Amino acid sequence: MPSSPFLEMIRRDIRLRGYSLRTEKTYLFWIKQFIIFNDKQHPTAMGVNEVKAFLTWLAVDRHVAVNTQKVALNAVVYLYHKVLDTPLGEIDFLPASKQRHLPTTLAPREIRAILSHLPQPQRLIVSILYGSGLRVSECLRLRIQDVCFDRMSLTVRDGKGKKDRQTLLSQSLVPELKEAIEKALATQQKDNESGIGPSMPGVLAKKYPSAYRTPGWMFIFPSESISEHPLTGTLCRHHLHDSVVRKALRRAVPAAGVVNKRVNCHTFRHSFATHLLESGYDIRSVQELLGHNDVKTTQIYTHVLGKHYAGTRSPLDTIVD
């Protein structure tokens, strides 16, 4: 995204505060949209009225979802509170209509069919999404040190909200996962001979310049190509891009005969939560495994199951034998 000196200043501020690259791109996008909406006025010449107009426009004219409007609000608030040190105070804007969409979930037979049409390593990745409830980005960022076969657990580092958490690992995936780790270590060893290794967090790479040679830091699902680190500019091997998984899914879903559902990577995380609740696990445990801050977020899956009206019998069943 072409940037002005002002946007580059914001980019540096975001990186200085340790935000993720995904957050950086999102915030820069919405700050740029805010400036364009207001005829490219400098934010220092604008204030709460312009912010209110922008957020209302997103709801009324762009018809964005409530979460999209919240992200735009967070970006603009970051700009004024953190970068410009000019708190906006209360903003009386028109909120986007709060659509309630139940998440799409798959039946076990549908998941088995889809997995059977996926090649490796995409099949293993999607299996982890379903078996451990991970987001696709969390799965692709897994390093060898994040797997504990003794406890049968995975550690998600710097997940959504910059939180770490642990989740379960399916026993059925152990052979495939160990094979993937062996291949990743072979790739790392070959890269190390050229002075290259997995991409490392910027600060850690400076403090421990040889850490990229440590097996624990290798990505389990490495990219097939070498690239420049987005922060340091050094040559390294990043993890596999999520588009590789998405493309494989787009081919596998219709091949598996699943034509009446919109399936993406997140569908398997939804199915993980739904099937655990269906099996009788308590909602607090599922909340912790998913990494939700609020149990209300997890409760959406009780609506998928129909457990919010558990015990209620259809009146038709009382008259039909």
Notes on the structure:
- The chain is mostly helical and 321 residues long.
- The chain is 49% helix and 4% strand.
- It has 14 helices and five strands.
- A hairpin with an 8-residue loop joins strand 2 and strand 3 (165-168).
- Helix 1 packs antiparallel against helix 2, helix 5 packs across helix 10 (242-255) and helix 6 packs parallel to helix 11 (265-278).
In short, what is this structure?
The protein is mainly alpha-helical.
Element layout with pairings:
Elements: H1 5-16, H2 21-37, H3 48-60, H4 66-83, H5 108-116, H6 122-132, H7 136-140, E1 147-148, E2 153-156, E3 165-168, H8 174-192, H9 202-207, E4 227-228, E5 235-236, H10 242-255, H11 265-278, H12 283-290, H13 295-298, H14 300-305
Antiparallel strand pairs: 1-2, 2-3, 4-5
Helix pairs in contact: 1-2, 2-4, 3-4, 5-10, 6-11
Number of helices: 14
Radius of gyration: 23 Å
Portion in beta strands: under 5%
In N-to-C order, the SSE pattern is HHHHHHHEEEHHEEHHHHH
Largest sheet: 3 strands, antiparallel
Question: What ranges have pLDDT less than 50 throughout 5 or more consecutive residues?
Answer: none
Share in helix: 40-55%
Span between N and C termini?
Answer: 64 Å
The gross shape turns out to be globular
Rounded mean pLDDT score: 88
Which strand order spans the largest sheet, edge to edge or round the barrel?
1-2-3
Number of strands: 5
- Would you tell me the structural class of the helices and strands? mainly alpha
